[in-house]
Amino acid sequence: MIRIHSVESLGTFDGPGVRMVLFLQGCNFKCLYCANPDTIELNGESRPYDYDELMKLARSQRPFFGKRGGITVSGGEPLMQASAITPFFSMLKAEGFNTCIDTNGSYLNDAVKELLQYTDLVLLDIKEINEEAHRKMTGMTNKATLRMAEYLHEINKTVWVRYVLVPGYTDDEEHLHELGRFLQPMTNIQKLEIQPYHKLGIHKYKSLGWKYELEGVEQNTPEQLKKAKEIFGQYVREVVVN
Length: 242
Ligand code: SF4
Hints:
Elements: E1 2-11, E2 19-24, E3 47-49, H1 51-65, E4 70-74, H2 82-94, E5 98-103, H3 110-116, E6 121-125, H4 131-138, H5 143-154, E7 159-165, H6 173-183, E8 189-196, H7 202-208, H8 222-233, E9 239-241
Parallel strand pairs: 2-4, 4-5, 5-6, 6-7, 7-8, 8-9
Antiparallel strand pairs: 1-2, 1-3
The chain binds iron/sulfur cluster.
Iron/sulfur cluster (SF4) binds at residues 27, 29-31, 34, 36, 39-40, 75-77, 104.
């Protein structure tokens, strides 16, 4: 059983091609910009799905996946349920589906290592390379995430790094260079996706009764996005703005 908040069909944002995206419930971070704050609380609105139901869903959507598409588990933080995902991914791989995990990278244990054996691609969300800025944005240390990046390099797992560029919070140019230098030796990183800051989830904060801390933060200017792309491009072979 996997505890799932919601299922998106025909997703084109979380991994290659057209995908079925499962948003799992529960996250150990509390990012100020989180667009899915309703997935953070472990006991938030969600329900358990069994493997039969999930496999039926995957098979029914297969005609839309084409050569590149497949299944992504996102969240929330999916690695909190790593041991529950492994049997599902194992079944998916046995039927030739492409599998992908979108994670903040803060869990690395035996269950996660096993799950990675059935995972084609990891979308690794790095929130900030600077520890203080990371704590300010997420409430947590970044050490485990950076260790995960190193581990994924060690096992040569294909990774797309994702980076949300928040004006005044995660766009310090020296931090971007530092992250670039950290990633540069990692030949397993296929690309880095810069995700512009947006406020699409803000209405969810109101319904949760939570304060949205980034109220006064404006969206990125084209110049800010261009600058970040230029900096990361000095270190990572492919950089895109989503
Ligand atoms: S890690 Fe992702 S799901 Fe968790 S709080 Fe941050 S943005 Fe939201």
